[in-house]
Each structure stands twice: as structure tokens, then as C-alpha cells.
Amino acid sequence: MTGTPDWIAVDWGTSRLRAWGMTASGTELWQRCSENGMGQLARDAFEDALLDLVGDTLGHGPIPVIACGMVGARQGWVEAAYRAVPCPPLDADTLTQAPCGDLRLTVKVIGGLKQIDPADVMRGEETQIAGFLALNPDFDGVICLPGSHSKWARISAGEVVSFQTFLTGEMFAALSQHTVLRHTVQSDRWDDAAFATAISDALSRPERLAARLFTLRAEALLNDLPPAPAAARLSGTLIGAELAAARPYWLGQDVALIGATDISRHYATALAQQGVPATIADVDAMTLKGLVKTRAHLKEPAA
């Protein structure tokens, strides 16, 4: 679908570029996606990558573009500065202008959040949090954003108070693709019982993480452990260890999950085992809502 938008919302990650053509009132006209993520682009290639995706919709321009994600990283189109927590997830007054040669575009990039001690950063997740808070303005609790780098963020009075990042998703990918476990866990199927057991074991003895991982390989060799329960146990072991470390975040708190459907369901199941119900929100919807909120603030008279 095409059509000249009033503005364009962009979520630009490491592996994917997604754009939405928007009306002035925040209605979606079209959605497009490409594989031209930040990780595949040199700094001088970002404008062309965006034009390849949306150039035929620009008309005579200029069309404002609001972008979030790794496009604002040090290796991205332009480095968009981090803001220190505690702070609101978004601040429309601190957007960074990206250099554009095509006069039909004006691109502004949302910066990420930083925490000095313990040192931590997020980039892109702040927009998802802002989208969730736009729909749930009275939320006070913890938002978990599972993914390659899972994040737990404390939210109070509309601000991100503190957060912590876990390398859980990236560890799962590395272990399942680049270690001896690659021979054991390759499966498109799932085993809920194996996942639940692994969650419980990891929460009770997180210090045995490394030993439990090799046990998967040994059981496959000696006891013919099938790939589906092996993969579910690998996931449960890593998520369980994360939950053990993140206990101060979720214990006794209202919890919301913003992530892809499958991984959010796994985290919700793991939390439910601990008696913690979690609300699940769609990651793409929250991202777009956060971008819409940023654009709306830019249109206020004070801006």
C-alpha cells in the first residue's frame, strides 16, 4: 500500500528496518519492512536504505521522520545521546537531527536511556515503554522487555526509575548455534513440562547454570533426550537464571511484558509459576504508539 503520509514513523534495529506512513492524527496509512538493519549499513548508507523503502511515498516533501532504535547508536546514522534515569522514557525536546541530502526528508532520532551505577543502557526499548505508558498512564510497577537483551525497568510516576539488562536471548542463540549443544537442541517443537521444570531448577539453584547446560548434551548421548525438551530446558534454564537475578524487580510487583509473542508467553509462564501474573503487550504496537506520542509532543506550541 502506498500514499503520501504526513509523517513517517521508523523503528530501525540491528537487523531490520520498519516504517509506517502516518496521517497527522496518528492513523496508519501503510507499513513496510526491509532487512537493512543498522548492522548491515555503513553510516553513509542509511539515507539510501530509507529512501529505498519509502522514497516512492514522499511526493514533493518535506516529510518529517521520527526514528527510534539502533539508528541512533554510535555506529548508526547519527549518535543520539542517552538520557540518565530517573527520567520519562521519551523527551521530544532532545531528539537528534540526522543529516539528509534529500530535501524531501527531515529525520529526527530518539535517544536512549543510561544508568550510571550499575552501568546499563537501552536504545529502542524507551520508545516501547513510552507506548505502553501512553495506553496505561497510571501504571506503577515493572516492565520486562524480553529479547536478545532482556530488560527489566522499574516504572513510577511516569518515569523509568532504574533498569537492568540480561544477555539471555543472545546467550540462547550462541549456545544453541555455536557450542556443542547445537547437536542437541535443534527443534521447532516445544515441551511445556520440560520448560517448567528447568525454570524451577534454575530459580532454586542458579549457581549450577553451567553444569545444567552440559547435562543436556550428556543426556542426549546417554539417554536419548529428544531435541524438543532439550531446547525447552535450555530456554528454561537461562530464563530461570535471569528471573533469579531479577527477583528484586518482579517480586511483589505489577509486571508487564513487551516483546514478541512466543518469548513473552514463555516469560509469562515462568512468572506465573512464581505466582506473578503479567500483562502482555505487542512490541510493534507499543513501538508505534511511542513514536506517535513523540510526534504529538513535537507538534505542541511549546515545541
Tell me the Rg in angstroms.
21 Å
CATH architecture of the largest domain: 2-Layer Sandwich
Largest sheet at a glance?
6 strands, mixed
Strand content: 15-25%
Helix/sheet category: alpha/beta
How many angstroms does the end-to-end distance come to? Answer: 32 Å
CATH superfamily of the largest domain: 2-keto-3-deoxy-galactonokinase, C-terminal domain
Instruction: Summarize the amount of helix as a percent range.
Output: 25-40%
CATH fold-level assignment of the largest domain: Nucleotidyltransferase, domain 5
Into how many domains do the coordinates divide?
2
Number of helices: 9
Number of strands: 14
Uncertain spans = none
Q: What is the level 1 CATH name of the largest domain?
A: Alpha Beta
Averaged pLDDT: 95
Widest sheet: strand ordering: 3-2-1-4-7-6
Shape: globular
